Amino acid sequence: MADHPPTVFLNEPEKWVSVKSRESILSVRFKPHAAEVKRTLDALEVVPALKRIERSKVVGYATCFVVAENGNSLYLLTCAHTIDHVYTATKEISVQDINRLFDTEVVCDHQENNGLGGERKFTEAIVTRVDCKKDILLVLVDKSKLLNLKGKQCRFQHPPLVASQNLPCSLEKVVMISWPPCMNRATSVGRISHPSRHYDDVSNTNEYGYNMNLIEVDMMVAEGSSGAPLLNCRANFVGLLQGGGKECFSCFVSLSDICKKLTEWGIFPREKVIQQKKSQK
User: Fold this and answer.
1) What is the mean pLDDT of the chain?
2) Which ranges constitute the DSSP H helices of the chain?
3) pLDDT tier at 280, thresholds 50, 70, 90
4) How far is CA 281 from CA 164, 165, 171, in A?
5) In angstroms, how far is CA 189 from the centroid of its own chain?
6) Residue 247 pLDDT greater than 70, yes or no
7) 231 and 196 in contact (C-beta within 8 Å)?
8) What is the pLDDT averaged over residues 276-280?
9) Does residue 220 contact residue 242 with C-beta atoms inside 8 Å?
């Protein structure tokens, strides 16, 4: 298949988007230091007392994707709510506390491109940035330490996904590639129902004080897909999976929120110019 983007979704370009993007998709897990997490849960008093010991031992999984590369450093974007039991709207968590409470580890797609032949070989990573109210979190990993199935250095590329220069529009066809636990390359196709809703429009509660805009997409998602990129027909990302919304809809953190935050964090060198697509008749 030619390595150039189609202009519209014809001739199965969804497959082109999937093949083009999958090397940039990783799985991230957060292994808790149970005693430290338990003390945090006791202080927050959000999780019921009888469930705190059990909750403090839960390993969290999410999807993440490469947004930047600098030498051997890969910067991976994912959601923050995988660890939302250790913070609240009024008591946010710092990067230092996340790294104290959890061991963050990632595994790349190339370990499973011919099927899983044994236990996954995760690579140590660290959390470098977090914004709980936007529900996004940035992870840093040394790409030279990513492992293949034989436990040796992965020699494949892990190219950053490119942010779209255009905001998505209603009825635009989009693709999501995610990595629920044990299910890499899970691919979904849908259409944008609404390009910009506030979090309070899609949820009756807001215990974490979310203040981002969301893209509403007619798409079902599996548990563990959170953090996955939403991709347009050029394989550019336009959103990040935040969670399932009402009925069959899923919600993604908006492109504008992501780009503003990555610029603020110094990941993008300058503000991305985002232009609203003109509706095509």
Assistant:
1) 88
2) 13-21, 34-44, 52-55, 95-101, 199-202, 255-264
3) very low
4) 21, 21, 12
5) 17
6) no
7) no
8) 45
9) no
- The CA-CA-CA angle for residues 14, 277, 268, to 5°, reads 80
pLDDT band for 278, please (50, 70, 90 cuts): very low
Distances (CA, A) of 217 to 3, 78, 161: 27, 18, 20
Inter-residue contact 201 to 195 (CB < 8 Å)? no
The structure's pTM equals: 0.90
C-alpha 64/C-alpha 106 separation (Å) is 9
Q: How far is CA 41 from CA 15, 30, 52, 62, 102, in A?
A: 44, 16, 7, 21, 14
Alpha-carbon torsion (35, 39, 40, 44), positive or negative: positive
pLDDT category of residue 83 using cuts at 50, 70 and 90: very high
Which among 169, 130, 166 is positioned nearest to 280, based on CA atoms? Answer: 169
Amino acid at 222: A
The total of other beta-carbon atoms located within 10 Å of residue 194's CB is: 18
Comparing 116-130, 190-204, 257-271, which segment has the lowest mean pLDDT? 116-130
Q: Which residues contact 274 (CB under 8 A, 6 or more apart)?
A: 164, 165, 166, 167, 255, 256, 259
